[in-house]
Specification:
Structural class: alpha/beta
Distance between the termini: 50 Å
Order of helices and strands: HHHHHHEHHEHEEEEHH
CATH class of the largest domain: Alpha Beta
Number of helices: 11
Number of strands: 6
Largest sheet: 6 strands, mixed
Strand order of the largest sheet: 3-2-1-4-5-6
CATH architecture of the largest domain: 2-Layer Sandwich
Radius of gyration: 21 Å
Number of domains: 2
Shape: elongated
């Protein structure tokens, strides 16, 4: 059995949260809807998908669901097994990375804070290769090339008919050519300047002398969806794993952290000036 897609996991976790907030036990739902506790548990843990009629019954029972959220959850159920172009690279990318690409494909917005790297959606090919080589210490040249291809293919979300709205706060340290050559870094900084001209791309720089801030805890990415904020997701990555934060209360904390980082960062025009100055000095 293939690993459940992130769509199915988002649906299952939201249904569990809604049930517990009523509150109802699985036995209670079984008694009222006729769905077995085993089936309900498998739906909530994303092991199986849910039929539209069963989903409507659950939503009616849990209550408090407006039309927009009902439509969003039905969309997740309909596309629960959907897999995209990235499956061609399933031997090269982790399930967590595939989840990120899947989320980006569905998302309306992305807010990210990066401490030492340029965000992947904003990278040049040469910069991507340099960083992937540095992070994936045991990768073969073929594997690195595949990962570069994936990273560049992800950037199509910036040029689709309804492009992903990206707001990146990048620490000034990430602008320095410490992980790649000066020519590569200059091209990368020019790429940031070019992208910042797009109406759906916002780039701010958090200066080195900024006061203490929530970003000191590390980088994170917030992925927003058009239907309802209840389904937003936060990605926190480490060297060996990726954590998807889906609980609305925790997602809200990251939202507050991003607002503080945005406020502490340089305005857009001064950020662009600093990027341009750093490029000229590199």
């Amino acid at each position: 059995m293939a690993d459940p897609t992130v769509r199915r996991r988002r649906l299952g976790s939201e249904l569990r949260r809604m049930r517990e907030s009523v509150p109802l036990k699985l036995d209670d739902v079984e008694a009222r809807l006729g769905l077995t506790t085993t089936k309900l548990s498998r739906i909530e843990t994303a092991r199986i998908n849910v039929k539209p009629a069963d989903l409507d019954g659950m939503l009616d029972l849990y209550g408090g669901v407006d039309d927009a959220k009902r439509a969003a959850l039905h969309s997740l159920a309909k596309d629960g097994g959907k897999r995209g172009w990235w499956q061609t690279y399933r031997d090269a990318i982790s399930p967590e990375y595939a989840d990120l690409i899947s989320l980006e494909a569905d998302a309306k917005s992305m807010r990210c804070y990066e401490t030492v790297l340029i965000p992947g959606l904003l990278q040049t090919s040469a910069y991507a290769r340099a960083t992937i080589n540095a992070i994936n210490m045991t990768s073969t040249p073929e594997h690195v090339s595949a990962l570069v291809e994936v990273r560049l293919a992800r950037q199509s979300v910036l040029t689709r008919p309804e492009p992903l709205a990206v707001w990146a706060v990048i620490h000034e340290a990430a602008l320095r050519p410490s992980i790649t050559s000066a020519p590569v870094m200059r091209d990368q900084l020019q790429r940031l300047l070019d992208l910042s001209e797009l109406p759906h791309v916002s780039i701010q720089v958090l200066p080195l002398d900024a006061m203490p801030h929530p970003g000191m805890a590390g980088s994170f990415t917030m992925i927003g969806f058009p239907e309802t904020a209840d389904l937003d997701v936060v990605l926190v990555e480490s060297l060996t794993s990726a954590l998807y934060v889906e609980d609305p209360a925790e997602v809200s904390i990251y939202g507050g952290a991003f607002e503080r980082l945005r406020a502490a960062a340089l305005p857009f025009d001064k950020s662009a000036d600093l990027i341009a100055k750093t490029k000229d000095q590199t």
